[in-house]
Design goal:
Blueprint (H helix, E strand, L loop, with lengths): L7 E2 L5 E2 L20 H11 L5 E4 L10 E5 L7 E7 L20 E9 L16 H19 L9 E3 L13 E7 L8 E2 L5 E11 H10 L1 H10 L15
Parallel strand pairs: 6-10
Antiparallel strand pairs: 1-2, 3-4, 4-5, 5-6, 7-8, 8-10, 9-10
Helix pairs in contact: 3-4
């Protein structure tokens, strides 16, 4: 495939997009809310049954209404499941070479958080949650809005650093960016109304070294490092880098 000379690619073949601060475009209320929410919630309840859950509702929404759904740990599966609804209310803007891939236009995000995480309860507001716990909600909402804000797309293997200087998300943590990963076919994609397909991408916090390794060698090489180092699906913000 011929590549536009203006496009920038890493040595590992990943296209690099540099997104600058957007000009203030004023408040843009969502046209629709929760287009596929009911089907997405049912999907997660089937995947992770018998869990208590609550929703961290977004009070004021711009472009899309992003809610963060939180499923509590169980004695058998002692971790939180969090996932977004609302990211898939709008299709993402795919690049020209794959703009016929309808199966990539809609997405939502999820994470597995440790049982020590404390996201509060129903009706808890962000100011009541210490940043050490709130960062995950803040981050997953930011990423879910990102493709609509910048008129781009997100998919398996995409990386986003926490700013140009790779600022750590937490004190004493090396995690300074994220990579998106898609699990098996039982998890994603989900066929919803009008035969649309919603893909679910796991948000994996990564170190600067891991991000740069992926850009140098590609996502498959990074996933191999994850497997070799027995990286767990439940987030550990204080783990050592696999690079």
């Amino acid at each position: 495939m011929l590549k536009n000379k203006k496009e920038e690619f890493s040595k590992g073949g990943s296209q690099i997009h540099r997104h600058e601060e957007q000009e203030n475009q004023g408040f843009r209320p969502p046209a629709d809310g929760g287009v596929f929410a009911e089907e997405i919630i049912s999907h997660f309840e089937e995947l992770f049954p018998n869990r208590e859950s609550f929703v961290f509702h977004e009070i004021i929404s711009d472009l899309v209404h992003i809610d963060v759904n939180i499923m509590k740990p169980t004695p058998k599966d002692n971790f939180y499941v969090i996932y977004t609804t609302g990211m898939s209310d709008l299709p993402m803007n795919l690049p020209e070479e794959i703009d016929n891939r309808d199966d990539l236009k809609y997405a939502e995000l999820f994470m597995f958080m440790p049982n020590s995480w404390n996201p509060g309860e129903t009706y808890t507001i962000s100011s009541d949650i210490p940043y050490e716990d709130y960062w995950a909600i803040q981050m997953i909402k930011f990423i879910a809005r990102f493709p609509h804000e910048y008129k781009t797309w997100l998919g398996h293997g995409h990386t986003i650093p926490n700013g140009p200087d790779y600022e750590p998300f937490l004190n004493n943590s090396e995690m300074s960016g994220i990579v998106l990963s898609e699990l098996d076919e039982n998890f994603s994609p989900l066929t919803v109304k009008n035969d649309a397909k919603v893909r679910f991408y796991m948000v994996v916090p990564v170190t600067r070294a891991e991000t740069e390794y992926k850009l140098e060698h590609g996502m498959q090489a990074l996933e191999k490092k994850f497997i070799e180092n027995n990286l767990q699906l439940v987030i550990d913000m204080y783990r050592k880098s696999v690079i």
